[in-house]
Amino acid sequence: KSVGAMHILAPSAVGSTRLDYKPGDFVITDQFYDHTSRSRPITFYDGKENPTDIKDILDIFQDRNKVCHINMSEPLCNNLRELIIKEIDKLGFSYHKTGKCMVFEGPRFSTIWESEVYRKVFGADTLSMTLVPECVLAREAGICYAHIAMVTDYDNLKKDAAVTTEEVGKTMKENTEKVKKLLSVVIPRIP
């Protein structure tokens, strides 16, 4: 924000809890559930003085020592999501217009039971180690944030195929050119 950023396009790897959200697919996330332990700061309004080493950056939040309640009912920027959907559709990539993302902290992958709970109890479509606190902080800063989830694996959905870093890396490598192409057509069309 301090350098004029008004939009954030955030591609990231996610695991799928659904057979129809396949590795290689994109998901234009519209909701999240924060299942993190809050080990990372989740607000700029923490009641503290701005640290001197990043004081210039944080000075846009003039009253950090006050409580600030941000509306997160629609946590991701719908205008930016609609633009991404329009452009990804033109490109013909396999994608899903919506997705509910369960966000937890890594660096480990989920246990089989955790994956089952995320899917059956919470109704999560995807699982990610990113998105929170990033999109919350962007909302506080007044920055439009969109999550372009790239499905890399079936997160313990298939009993005989537990997720591995090799599988995630392979799918990410295969999707790199697609996401670059998507960003190259979306960025110039951001108003």
Instruction: Assign a percent range to the helix content.
Output: 25-40%
The shape, in one word, is globular
What structural category do the secondary elements indicate? alpha/beta
What are the segments in which pLDDT stays under 50 over at least 5 consecutive residues? none
Total number of helices:
5
Largest sheet: 7 strands, mixed
Distance between the termini: 16 Å
Strand order of the largest sheet: 3-5-6-1-7-2-4
- The rounded Rg comes to 17 Å
If you average the pLDDT, what whole number results?
A: 87
Number of strands: 7
Strand residue content: 15-25%
Q: Please provide the ordered H/E string of secondary-structure elements.
A: EEEHHEEHEHEH
